[in-house]
């Protein structure tokens, strides 16, 4: 591609991989007739080696200002491909400058990359030769001015907040972690399984689940329909019954008189229509406004799935079925919890990564969890360093050091009993929740272990059975289960998992002990009835991993569309 001509249309052009050699061409996006800003400014030379190249770029104006008494304008342009902006210079002869300099304006331009004057921060800038398209903004109405905005304020504009530096950086970090997740498990021979979002099983046994039902909408439709078409009266039903008798008598008389087949057939058809009409009236007369009832309770057999159904709190139970056939599997998807919590650590909708491994025990589980968390941290250091540097500069100065520490440090492993003893012996801090054997460790306890006592990630294992789920394998002491939690600085628990109870009699007893009905878990017990196998697994809260990586304080700011009590925007 000649440097003095624009590239051919993208459908006629193969993308050229960009390296740092002076004569390399810009990498034109394969499905968009433009060059990504990242391709220009993220080179080791800052893009200076591309001076002289003709390109098209598109993006949103971060800041703009007219210079030289309005003869030209400087724009800081960003297309979301990286945190850095591309400086764009437009002369007033090329386009009217007034609408281009407004923050939030979208522009699509072509021009030539040039080296800026010596001593400037930029290594390259774009001198615009043609403005192809503009998406203007009314600065009086645009809700995201270029002044610094709080993350709390931005939650009211979830559809626009990706345009801010912080949310776009978090989005790229989140994307990198998702890509790393699939890379890690695929590399180790795990199969990705899509588990259902709608379920009839409560994995946690906590009962804090969103119910999925059409009964309310069905009742509303019925109420509206009954207003327009009231229920049939008793006289209407009696009239319909009389008509059936009359039609029946006619058929009998015709048969007795040995009438023709045509006459009898016609009379039978009329009788059938009369019977169908009566049946519809009788069925309709049984309709009752409101929710269907049976024995004083809501009759869920009349619901869409003919039983109670919920949004899943975990894909674990279902993915176990595949682990018990395909050996190593994982699921990665949204989960839901109807917990009325307004803390900075809780969401109603969140994502979980849940691997499950057959022929593996608790030690194997801990090894896998540790390797996975380290892989995620190293991946960000290797592939998302520019965004992490933005995070360090603006939110958490220790974020990169924390990633390096976790990626390179062996995790400390201690039993729950040992952890409790260490916390009981703490004298320099008073915990809000008293520490004693049998409690579910709170975030303050978890963070003290990892941040103060050991100063590195900690895996706590063998928890009391009373505070863990029914599916966790009962240890020989009959007091604890083969559970483990991975604790990391900043967030506390990042991973929770266990060796699963593979013994039929034991898990059946555990379900009953926890006051849960057996029937919804009958299919789960089948996995123990038929070809049971030792297996284990864990769940990583994906948003917690993003919190850990970024150091951002509120979990509502690390998921694209946060759902929490009172809010479900868009």
Automatic annotation (TrEMBL):
<dbReference type="InterPro" id="IPR000738">
    <property type="entry name" value="WHEP-TRS_dom"/>
</dbReference>
<keyword id="KW-0547">Nucleotide-binding</keyword>
<feature type="domain" description="Aminoacyl-transfer RNA synthetases class-II family profile">
    <location>
        <begin position="329"/>
        <end position="560"/>
    </location>
</feature>
<dbReference type="GO" id="GO:0005739">
    <property type="term" value="C:mitochondrion"/>
</dbReference>
<dbReference type="GO" id="GO:0005524">
    <property type="term" value="F:ATP binding"/>
</dbReference>
<dbReference type="Pfam" id="PF00152">
    <property type="entry name" value="tRNA-synt_2"/>
</dbReference>
<dbReference type="GO" id="GO:0004816">
    <property type="term" value="F:asparagine-tRNA ligase activity"/>
</dbReference>
<keyword id="KW-0030">Aminoacyl-tRNA synthetase</keyword>
<dbReference type="Pfam" id="PF01336">
    <property type="entry name" value="tRNA_anti-codon"/>
</dbReference>
<dbReference type="InterPro" id="IPR004364">
    <property type="entry name" value="Aa-tRNA-synt_II"/>
</dbReference>
<dbReference type="InterPro" id="IPR002312">
    <property type="entry name" value="Asp/Asn-tRNA-synth_IIb"/>
</dbReference>
<feature type="domain" description="WHEP-TRS">
    <location>
        <begin position="236"/>
        <end position="292"/>
    </location>
</feature>
<dbReference type="InterPro" id="IPR012340">
    <property type="entry name" value="NA-bd_OB-fold"/>
</dbReference>
<keyword id="KW-0067">ATP-binding</keyword>
<dbReference type="InterPro" id="IPR006195">
    <property type="entry name" value="aa-tRNA-synth_II"/>
</dbReference>
<comment type="similarity">
    <text>Belongs to the class-II aminoacyl-tRNA synthetase family.</text>
</comment>
<keyword id="KW-0436">Ligase</keyword>
<dbReference type="GO" id="GO:0003676">
    <property type="term" value="F:nucleic acid binding"/>
</dbReference>
<dbReference type="InterPro" id="IPR004365">
    <property type="entry name" value="NA-bd_OB_tRNA"/>
</dbReference>
<protein>
    <recommendedName>
        <fullName>asparagine--tRNA ligase</fullName>
        <ecNumber>6.1.1.22</ecNumber>
    </recommendedName>
</protein>
<dbReference type="InterPro" id="IPR045864">
    <property type="entry name" value="aa-tRNA-synth_II/BPL/LPL"/>
</dbReference>
<dbReference type="InterPro" id="IPR004522">
    <property type="entry name" value="Asn-tRNA-ligase"/>
</dbReference>
<keyword id="KW-0648">Protein biosynthesis</keyword>
<dbReference type="GO" id="GO:0006421">
    <property type="term" value="P:asparaginyl-tRNA aminoacylation"/>
</dbReference>
